[in-house]
Amino acid sequence: MMQRTAVALTIIALAAGLFGQTSGSSMRPRARDIGIRTGVLPTGDLNSITDVAGVKVGQTTIIRGDNVRTGVTTILPHGGNLFQEKVPGAIFVGNGFGKLAGSTQVNELGEIETPIVLTSTLSVPKTADLLIDYMLGLKGNENVRSINPLVAETNDGGLNDGRGRHVSREDVFSSITNAKSGSVEEGSVGAGTGTVAFGWKGGIGTSSRKLPTSLGGYTLGVLVQSNFGGVLTVDGAPVGVELKKHYLREAVSSTPNGNKDLGSDKADGSIIIVIATDAPLDHRQLNRLASRAMSGLARTGSSMTNGSGDYVIAFSTANRINASQNVRDVKILGNDAMSPLFQAVIEATEEAIINSILRATTVTGNGRTVEALPIDKLTEILARYGKIK
Questions:
Q1: 26 included as an active-site residue
Q2: Is 339 a catalytic residue?
Q3: pTM of the model
Q4: Which of 16, 132, 195, 302 could disulfide-pair with 230, CB 3.0 to 4.6 Å?
Q5: Considering only CA atoms, which of 296, 299, 294 is closest in space to residue 310?
Q6: Residues 119, 130: contact at Cβ < 8 Å?
């Protein structure tokens, strides 16, 4: 009874617009704050990618003048020297319209050897170069002659001066050295500062799932950088249709309104989905896991258009690969044990995307304004469709 009352009071506050009056994401809700419960599995303690032990996230938000709205988000599989203690990894490509540096070596060797860095499209080469600088400078890497920097992107050029490539050495290094466990800031921060999703402000979002002990007790976490379009669907409710803001609306509507704001009738863009798990998986299994994230993406209404780069980066923290000895613990799960993890990644991906939109704040940049999803209207729609009480 107490939980239901708390949810009801939250919705009343949201309907009054209290969350939308602040400039910071800290006053906007996550999905579960307004009663949204996607899936059947429980979350981890923080409902975050950092629920996977050892995983850290660091972010640098870059806001300058009228047209710089970008940043860097870094995910560390562990806090040590990743080149000397690599982790099993895999990259799955849903639609390949993107610039994911380092992907071919990850899929050839099945290993990730640097932090995973997310940023803006045209900043990928520069960021990769700076990531190499960082890795070469680590103690123990003095004789290293090859580094495979893993840098992914979405295009924030609508709100940000992407051509200026404003990411600096300090920005990249800071996102790595200040990475931490615990709660992850979401919304219009880091690599999500200038992104757009479903015509509303997108950004960084995260979620996690914890398998029951009978299924291994493993934890799986997801972090997303959302910058794509389609027909926004929240826990099955057709929010984009109800708000009359979705892909192809102008083409199919009998009463077109000429609304050409960012993303209102487009679905091009990208999403980067990063999956962490403590389940002992190898490259092949991680690739299978990563492919299931597309189902979570689909649940939110993504159209995966021609111009959308939809990528999934997955890694396991269970079996580190020692570079000097070239050996590792080869314990891995059997294939029959994978299905619960597939369910977990679908649920966590869906919720991470919704969190990225809910937590995002309105941003003005580059001569444009992209509004945050109106929480009062969202809760009214969800209540009408029986998704929240």
A1: no
A2: no
A3: 0.92
A4: 302
A5: 294
A6: no
